[in-house]
Structure formats: structure tokens, C-alpha cells
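Table 4 source record.
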Amino acid sequence: MGRHRILVAEPVAAPAIELLSAAHETAVRPGLPRAELLAALSEDGGWDALVVRSQTRVDAELLAAVAEGDPEAFGVLYDQHAPWLLVRLRQRTASVDLADQVAQETFLVVWRDAGRFRGRGEVGAWIWGIAIRRLLDVQRGDAAQGRLAGLLG
């Protein structure tokens, strides 16, 4: 495993920072605005990973409120998860439009199916699971349409 550039964007215990720094280039910048975090993780931002505090409990509470139809909780959940979701989706497809479409569809599923989350694992992982399955479905469908057009064309 090679060295990675890791940006720590939340206060983290000193032993954890020492452990990260021993194996990787690490910078600690708590309180960095969201736009700067996203720019740092973009292709030309130069950082390989980002460390932020766990949102597990807060996210689970927000998702429970979303399941009860709370649009404000949905807005907060969206604001916390859409930026990283878009970055990850855009790393997996050459089409920015497709990544944006899949992100929108993902959050429609989150709104509709929030009550299905059982609290096992992190909400972000649940959201990512929805997004990556949707992206793969769309990509498979596009590939199948291309093959069919080739056979018919």
C-alpha cells in the first residue's frame, strides 16, 4: 500500500492523527467550508481521502424524521450527503449528467424508503448502496440498448 494524501476536516484525537501521519501525508484543517472540502477531493484537488466525524447517530435521527415525512430533516440529510455522493458518482462515470441524475434518483428513493432503514450500519453506506445499484442499473441498460441497436442496425 502506497502513501496517500489524507485531509482531516474534523477534530480527531492526537493518537489517530499520529497513526495516519506515520503511513500517509496528512493535513489537519478543522472547520474547512464544504466547498473547499469538495474541491480538495476533486480530481485536481490533490487529496485522496477525507476524514470527518461520524454522523451515524445524527443521520439515523434525521432518517427517522424523513420516514415520518419531515421535509426539513430531508433537506439537512441531503445537504450532508449529496456533495460526497456526487463526487463518488462522478468518479465512476464519465457523464456528469448521469451522475447528477443518479444522485437525484437516489434521494427520491431515500425520501420514499427512509422507513426501510433498520439502523444496521451507517446511513451514508445505505445511501451509497442505493446510488451505486442505480448507477449500475442505468449503465447496464445503456450497454444493452447499445448492443440491441448494433444487432438491429
